[in-house]
What does this fold into?
Amino acid sequence: MLSNFKAILALTVGLFLNFSIFSQITEAEIREIALSGSEQEVLMQSSTLMSDGYLYYSEILTDKLIQINPESSNYNYRKGYLMLEIRKDYVGAIPYFEKAILDTDPNFDMFSTKEKSAPTDAFFHLASCYHLNEDIDKAEEYYKQFQAISKKKSELLPVAELRLLQCTQAKEKIAAPVNVFLKNIGPKINTAYPEYSPVVSLDGSALYFTSRRDWVKNETDEFKDPRINQYPEDVYVSYKDFDSTWTTPIKLAFCQPRRNEATIAISSDERKIYLYEDSTGNGDIYYTDFYHAKFQDIQKLEIADVNTEYWETHCMMSNDKKTFYFVSDRKGGFGGRDIYMLKMDDATGEWSEPINLGSQINSSYDEDSPFISIDNKTLYYSTNGPKSIGGFDIMTAYYENDSAYTEGKNLGYPFNSTNDDIFYTTTLDGRKGYLTSFRKDGYGEKDIYEIYNDYLGIRDVAVLKGLIKTVDDKPIPEDFAINVRLVCVDCEEGNNQKLVYPRLRDGVFMTSLQPCKTYKLEYMNVTDDAVMYEDAFTTLCDTNYQEIYRELLLDVDKRIIIIPEDTLDLDTVIVNEYPNLEFMHYFAYNKNKLTTRKGELKDFVQAVAKQLDEGRPNITVNIYSSASHVPTKTYETNEILTSLRAENMKYDLIAYFEKTEAYKGKVNVVIVTTTVQGPEYEKDSKNKEKYFPYQYVGLKTE
It folds into this structure.
């Protein structure tokens, strides 16, 4: 979503003035000009294309100019500038800017064939490259040189002043790094094309993201943006595969070849995706709902006062569905893009007018990509203002006393880099997250990174988690899906209640609760408002985090709920003195075994061992396994396959912990479920999107 990387947008001011002219020029024609045109012709075309935002075409011609005069400060400036703006190749651009600053002129004329100098802006861009490269001393040196020689009316002067403030922040943060583990998510997700805006499911089993990669059958070739040589944006989803790696991403069905669709957020039940789409010219928020076994075509969000004639780039619905956050550059804010929220009126069910989050969050610069944790209070967002160490940085704030947010705080280095770090979303407990960044180990212009930490997380919250299975492993009907109604029985009638829908791909459901409250759960058939079963519990008052687990069996035909006897002992409050640990792995067809020696299963068993080392007396690891209805040629039945998945996992876990004297007898491994589920097989095994979500093994500690 280029909307969130403003450097490119700053170059497109005159784009639509000449679009009808340059949109007709092909790359082949540009290369012909480079091959046979005179230096004057190549220079004029390069300058015109650059001023009108056709950076890719301009670079083709600039490469010819460099061949003609490789020492020209003018030509080297152009090349460095284009490398930085098109691909953000700050390392590769440095040698060109180093040559450019040898001869600068504040009265630079980019259209003059006699111009041999570079503009004084070359010092600013060289400083930017060193800033991005985390060479802060050199960045400060060249920002200050730019300030000293630039014209006083230069629009880059206030930017240089901001960057110097960010350099000060960078020195402080780099000198005192935070304890995180950050890794590139790898080549299954990241490619040579931009990948960004990751949205992870609460249990970490699915990742939705945006990519500008080409389509398999080249359907998007004719819609490639000639300005920056990039394909349109599309939305993909990936699931965890063998050894906890990500599967080959699946493009979602609503994507169209000529249209840009970019991920913003998903609902906790994964039945709604919020999107950014810019076909109207100013950028708006859209959504798509999942029904009839697929996501439908996108629709413009109809919540009043959100989409306007201004630029709306991002949104997020809180888990309790009582607060809606969005980003806009509308008038009346603090400047740039600001984060706003709408509050739900409990009595009327209507949204308030937009409320600016205030100066504790918003600044005169840009704030974007809000993400609210399951506690409905912990906010993550990005800013490119003076609190950043460079580009966009991820910040956190907390909604105190149901009145206002605390001042946003930078999450530190290397959580943040001196480049753009944005679009941060987390799993349930807040300790694992995914973000978009541009770093040296990347595969393309923007990549997705996974990050672990031991100092963030949600607080003062209870979480209801559960699993709905069906008799005969029938799919949960989309128009009948079991809903959980949470009723605070010590509150006024009609207050503090919500419907919670299970995830259709595996029956998992989860939502946040308040500590020290009594709840009644009503398991309902929403189509006729009939309550099939109910129970109640009270959340604890004196714990920072707790979980309540429920497991149900739905008879789809009879429309009744059955509570299996072997899960009655799970219907208890879990006080999370030690954080509960979860692991989810999606198998390829017929695969049934993992290893504790590598991948996320290694991380899981090491985390269990760490809790035992810290004094936890014992741990129960529950195993949940599943197979789809796709026929297995390797095993006699799918029932055997899902049992093998569970038994192999149990054996490996026991073997891992029993071999160490300190852990013997302290880890109890229990197989809770072995199911065959999902849609009936229709001789379409290549349809991974349909069957893959039902081939898994999951672990959860208690």
In short: Residues 2-175 form a domain with the Serine Threonine Protein Phosphatase 5, Tetratricopeptide repeat fold (CATH 1.25.40.10). The radius of gyration is 27 Å. The chain has four domains: 2-175, 180-453, 460-576, 578-702. Confidence is low (pLDDT under 50) at residues 1-22.
